[in-house]
Amino acid sequence: MKNTNHYYSRPLGLFILLCLIPLWALAQTITVKGVVKDSSGEPVIGASVLEVGTSNGTITDLAGGFSLKVSSKGKLIISFIGYQKQEVLVGGKSQFNIIMKDDTKVLDEVVVVGYGQMKRSDLTGAVVSVSSDAISKSVVTSVDQVLQGRAAGVQVQQNSGMPGASSSIRIRGVNSLNGSNEPIFVIDGVIIDSSTGSGTDNALSSINPSDIVSMDVLKDASATAIYGARAANGVIIITTKRGQSGEAKITYDGYFGWQEMPKKLDMLNLREYAELKNVKSGKDYAGANWGIVQADDNFVRPDLLGEGTDWQDEMFQKATMTSHNLSVTGGNDKSNYALGAGYLNQDGIAIGSGFRRLNLRGSFDSQVKKYLKMGINFAFSNSRQKLTVSDESLIETALKQTPNVAVRNAEGNFDGPDTDEYVQNNPVGLAMLNDNRNEKMGIRANTYAEATIINGLTLKTELSFDYGITNTYKFDPSYTFGAIVNGTREGAYSKSYNKYWSWRNIVTYNKKFGNHNLSAMLGQEMQKSRWEYLYGSRKGYLSNSATDLTLGDPSTAQNDGTSGESSILSYFGRMFYSYNDKYLLTFTMRRDGSSKFYKDNRWGWFPSAALAWRISSEDFLKDNSVINNLKLRIGWGTVGNQNVTNNAYLATYSSVGTIWGTGLLASNTPNQKLKWESTYSSNIGLDLNLFQNRIEFIADLYYKKTKDLLLQVPLPAYVGTTGAGSTSAPWKNIGSLENKGLELTLNTINIDKGHFQWKSNLVFSLNRNKVKELDTESSLINKTYQSGDLVTVISRTVVGKSIGQFYGYKIIGRFEKATDFYYKDAEGNVKPTALPEDMSIGKNSVWIGDYIFEDVNKDGVIDDQDRDFIGNPEPDFTYGIGNTFSYKGFDLSIYLNGSYGNEVVNWGRRQLDNPRENTNLLKSALDYAQLGLINAAGPDDYRNVQIIGGDAHAARMAASSATNTSNYRFSDKFVEDGSYLRIQSISFGYTFPNKWVSKFGLQNLKLYCNLQNVYTFTKYKGYDPEIGSSNQDALLTGFDNYRYPSPRIYTFGLNLTF
Amino acid sequence: MNMKTSKYIYALVLATSLTFTGCSDFLDTENNSSITGDNFYQSEEDFSAATAPLYSKVWFDFNDKFYYGLGDGRGYNLYAPYSSYIYPFTDLNETGLTGPLVSAWGSLYNVIQQSNKVILGIKGSTLSDQDIKNQYIAEARFMRGVAYSYLAMLWGNVIISENTNDLIDNPIVNTNPTSDVYEFAMRDLEFAAKYLPKSSSPKGRVNKYSAYALLSRVYLTYAGYSSNANSGTRNQEYLDLAKKAADKVITESDFSILDNYEDLFMITNNNNAESVFALQWIANGAYGEANTLQSYLACGSEITNDAAAWGYWTRAQPDVVWEYEADDTRRKATWMAYGDHYDEIQIANGGYTYDKTETALNVKKYVCGSTKDNAGISEQSCPINTYMMRLAEVYLIYAEAVLGNNASTTDVTALKYFNKVRTRAGLAAKESIAFEDIRHERRMELCMEGQYWYDLVRRAYYKQQEVINYIKNQQRDVITPVLWNTDSQTLTIDASRDPGSRSIGNIDESIFLLPYPESETVQNPLLKADPVSYEFKEDRITDLFN
């Protein structure tokens, strides 16, 4: 949220220096000399020094010095962009030391608002901006990460720590039940749908963050409505670098860094694993066979064993990353240009992951005629991502792989378990040998012509393209890892081609008459997206080395190819009116037609209105020395969502291979009544700047209601919508939900003395989400997760509660003693404690040491009716705290972000904390409740059994799989507090003094180091409490299923301008 | 050109472009990836393309794990201590969350709903030839009837659906009682028996006699069904129908049994003369179109030549091995015992000799080898048909229907058919048949063809306590260590090892019905409410056996 003009200050200064002819003073004058410096003591080059009331002036030189003949009674005014103007009386003095103060007045910053720009002071909607400063002070590899905790109301969570992976971005909460809640990104006019990215594949990863000048987040509907049908989840507008008039400026920015695992889980070593296995194959407390596993002859003397393999150490590594960025900008008063190239290479901390990206970009703008401006920009990217870890769930495999298995055998080849049944494969071997990656190429271009017809009236036509090719490569070689043998080599390759284009025509009219200021815009836009997909695979390769399809056995070939397209046609307009800079009014209107809906329901209207009152411009506050700016904003608007599959309104049939040739099966359930999902939102905001803008405070309160929610309705399987050969369930408009919230931003300059400056910024967001109506028959939506053969309901969404809340059983205690199997009801009757369905008191059923579940419906039995809401993934609030300190050339910034009050499902613990599982386990799994006979001579009867050890909250280890399944059912045991406070980054830099670097012909030289993901304060037991959403699905948020942890990153970098 | 003119030209170009881009057919997009409803169901070719997937993909999830996991696992032909897709069934403690149970429910209903769509699509077709229409409607109703007969045996009261759209509009409906479900299944199969052609064209498609064969099984099952599970007798009317239906198949159809039992389970013998109804899987099929059985049953990668061979711990329950009579050739075709040699696997090495362990027998049936043995095999895809019904079973149904409520029978025809099955297996003919002979013969003949649990349920409809006692006697909670003796070709108890134990569910009358999938009861609590009787929408066919 920092002024972006600052970036251009130096070249502009130089330009003025070069262009202006010194003006010579008149008679009766004295010569004054002086030096102009900034608060850090650096000379300010090119500052203008002017004698007030005359045209007499000069420009400071490279040392910040000036010399000017002025009237001895005159007044000097010193100014430079980015600094506050200063006036000094000459008063006969001939030597001046002038310290310029940073201009923190950000009000006249230009904000991009969708098909146009506005001065920040004219804004009526809720718009937040993030400058390139924020990007340069952290190590981000993808633009979505920049926003994390830096913009109020914008919640960003990385779905995976894997290089190149995606984030879940939620602007003002979850607006839709439909899979994606991701905002759209408008990059130099090209709309990019971030929801096209899945968990590991990020649609935005092709964009180089260092190309970005600013990101403007449009939050409320009065700001987003101009994007109509696609704006329901908010809009993020990204502006990349363009050239500036002046001598060419070449900037290099590069860094080198290391990444490491921030945390390790405490897993069993070989001795502990062997001991546990011996227990499970031995005799239990009553002398009966446990019989859970067969005895392993190698584990006869666990005390003689070593630590075994630490699979976390083997799987995770210290990984390097490097980044180089070079840009050239320049131009003259008619034309300007910008060129850039970037390269990023990030290895993954887990073997079998990594990301590389090459970017090239250029822009050229020219005033070709007095009345005609034209420009083009293009961006090319090429990225490569390794996916073996995520595609084959190798983090899960590594955690489960047992310590008795070696990574490599004596010959140095990859080893494996000594049986191939019910064991884990060698994750390191798979990560190293399997080829599983993608390569993407994309070119994004935008070209425009803008004509000024008469003064104030411009016509702009703009054509944008975004073409992308994604290749995926997958080759499974043959291998022998111990007893695990894969004899069949298989190659599978795919190519997909995406093509998006849009053409828009915009008329803008600006007119100022007296105190009235009018700006109107009318536009029309057409957008078309098309994708094609081609897939081929073969088996039966003769070697692991050459893997092209042609080398596979042609008789095993399989292939597939599909395509699809969608289009949107739109008309829109905006009117802005202000009176005397006090009363500001904006109206927008958009009409969109989308190919995704049936003819009758294609078109939607999206209006908005907003009003702002600059109270500080009123007479009673105009000259107030404390309040510099006070503005009240009120807005209302409607936006839409059209995220459904193509052809959802048409009955379609898909082909099935049969022995009699191609067969056809109905593939969907059409719904012609399908229409837009609409979000109505209201916003009240306040902007307040105090004490020469040293304190800036922004507050927004909002209420949003989304109607006609689009959802592929969950139907019972008996409708024929689940599994192979099913038809997909219909898309319907099924209900409504609301989001309300509060956002606060506070930017302060705490200390600004001498060369020392301390700035802080605080961002606070609070959102409450509630489902208002659901028209599904059951009025609820369950989100299930399937692992192996078990399908589990993870979250349930019902009317009156926030969406995607975790749903399961509640553990209310443990059977500690025989009397726990009975309780006295209110009338004093002794009743049996509710036991799980089909279970009774018994060692192979429910026993001492098993969990007592809450009998929610009080029917005396624990069954699926006894589940309840056991956690909410939505945080109470999220926050970010930034502090920047600078002293002379040094700067230090520390940035923290956090989330409070959200819950997380630690899914891995359902297995890794379960002592009965035959995989490797967490150390905490050893704390199961240990049983003993009360009277050693007595029978093995529950009245004669007691708990003699183990953790007070852990269940017993049971021989019976039924008991085990019951104790480890999905319950609140696996729901943990996901609150955290993270030291997200600490960056420290030193900018060399100009007088030194200028000797080498440099304009700027900065060295910096950065620590990213420094430390996380949390109670969460998994790797990382920042989970995101599985496949960006809002109904499966905060579900940690062996998520790839975000790395800790140390970087050292250099920034050079000449 | 002066500035003003060019400005006007520019404005004109812009205005034109605005007009041009205003065309609303811009929103009519191209769809090349699927066929839409408007241009389908117009010819016999279309009908045939619509019924073809009813033999494979819709059954995929049923075939994948449930076919043997329930049929043989719950019947206790199989012992699979670590396979979570089998042991919940053998241990009798499956729940509404057990994966294969959930997916089989979904699969059977996919068969039903896709059949419904085909039936409605053909009914609404503009094609005028009613015979052609009836033939393909009959094919779809055959599938729907088979699916409902499974649902009736497994879950009892279920929802009968003839039109998917009704359920989409209102999915919260009551179930219909078991007897209505049976009747619905029979009506479907009767329609199929009436309108399907006499012989299959092309090969593998069901014909009139496939429908009679399935009818004989359903009639026989339904004969025992009443409100009293221990009535001890079966309904003679349905016993007679079962006999008549079986007789039609045996005497009128093209079906005949193969000479050699082992040949039934060779890929090259798909759709042989004995195959009455089989699921049809394609070679090198993609997921959903391929037969995955081999991957779960094959005991090791040396057979499949890939990592998908997860069956080492899926083994013959000793009891079933002990039940084979000496010289029963079906044992080797069903189970691999130490030293057994199979020519069709590892052909390049001169065949495969099973030598994995002497402590167990692994599965042979549906295990066919690797891509080197048959180019149609690939990972998790083995193009062998899955038998849903063979002529041999029709023979046994005939005999059982004749036996009916008698203690034994010496009916000549019944003996003839019954002994055809026995003698093919290399066993001596019987001179009299009692129920125990039928039970035994069915178990041996159809072992690993997913039938045995249904045999037990069929019996439990009228002699429930006897079946409960039988299952209790199986002692599923004790795992007896055994050893295979190659010389004597016998399985003996290995006294040197301790017996293992398993915890199993309660054995009572509740085991004969499966729990509804939890995902279903959550969405439709009415599943647990009392069923309401079904209103049949047409008259039942009565002229099938005239």
Descriptive notes:
The complex is a heterodimer of chains A (1058) and B (546). Chain A has 1058 residues and is mainly β. Helices cover 7% and strands 49% of the residues of chain A. Chain A contains 13 helices and 59 strands. Chain A is globular, with a radius of gyration of 33 Å. Chain B is mainly α. In chain B, 43% of the residues lie in helices and 7% in strands. Chain B has 20 helices and 15 strands. A two-stranded antiparallel ribbon of chain B has the order 2-4. In chain B, strands 3-9 form a two-stranded antiparallel sheet. In chain B, α6 (130-154) packs antiparallel against α8 (178-195) and α9 (208-224) runs parallel beside α15 (391-403). The termini of chain B are far apart. Chains A and B meet through β22, β25, β26, β27 and β28 of A and α1, β1, α2, α3 and α5 of B.
Q: How many strands, which pairing sense, and closed or not: the largest β-sheet of chain A? A: 22 strands, antiparallel, barrel
How widely separated are the two ends of chain B? 97 Å
Number of DSSP helical runs of chain B = 20
Strand content of chain B: 5-15%
Morphology call of chain B: globular
Helix content of chain B: 40-55%
Cα(first) to Cα(last) distance of chain A is: 27 Å
State the major sheet of chain B.
2 strands, antiparallel
| Biggest interface, residues from each chain | A-B, 105 and 121 residues
How many strand segments of chain B? Answer: 15
* Radius of gyration based on Cα positions of chain B: 27 Å
Low-pLDDT segments of chain A: 1-27
Described by its quaternary structure, the protein is heterodimer
Structural class of chain B: mainly alpha
| Class inferred from helices and paired strands of chain A | mainly beta
**Proportion in helices of chain A:** under 10%
* Rg of Cα set of chain A: 33 Å
Number of helices of chain A: 13
